[in-house]
Amino acid sequence: MYQPYPQGAAEPEPGSQRTQPPESIRNAVKLMYAGAAVSLIVIIVALVTIGSAKTAVHHAFPHYSPAKVRSAAFGLVAYEVIIQVITIGLWLWMARANQAGKSWARIVSSVLFGLNTLILLASLARPHATIGIVLLAVVWVIGLGAIFFLWRKDSSGYFAASRLP
What we know:
This protein is an all-alpha fold.
């Protein structure tokens, strides 16, 4: 018996079609990727400006010996690199999870933004190179923008629709 060759793609099952993220989610995800990129720049700057870190430690603690100044500066740089590597991983994880419509990711992103705020404030209280603080502030502003977009009404609708079976 003759059956014609199908001409088009099969229609998807109702409910199996994934809705596309709204513009607000796409903007939040773009900002999260930008946050990861700037965090990478923070690592590079921290490694390149170790001399500035030594100067900042020396000015903050003039009674430190040269060896202790060097050790403290390397400690500050190592701390910054470790924090930023973790931060990059979190930016990328949250970007993917939010884009996929995981409602828990919006909450986790908000909590991480709160932690980022505390890290920025703590960075102001310790010896630092000015460029490092400026970059951390840029990362914070990017995070603020991402949180703004994640909590918009159309974003809430997307997360609610993603929970449906």
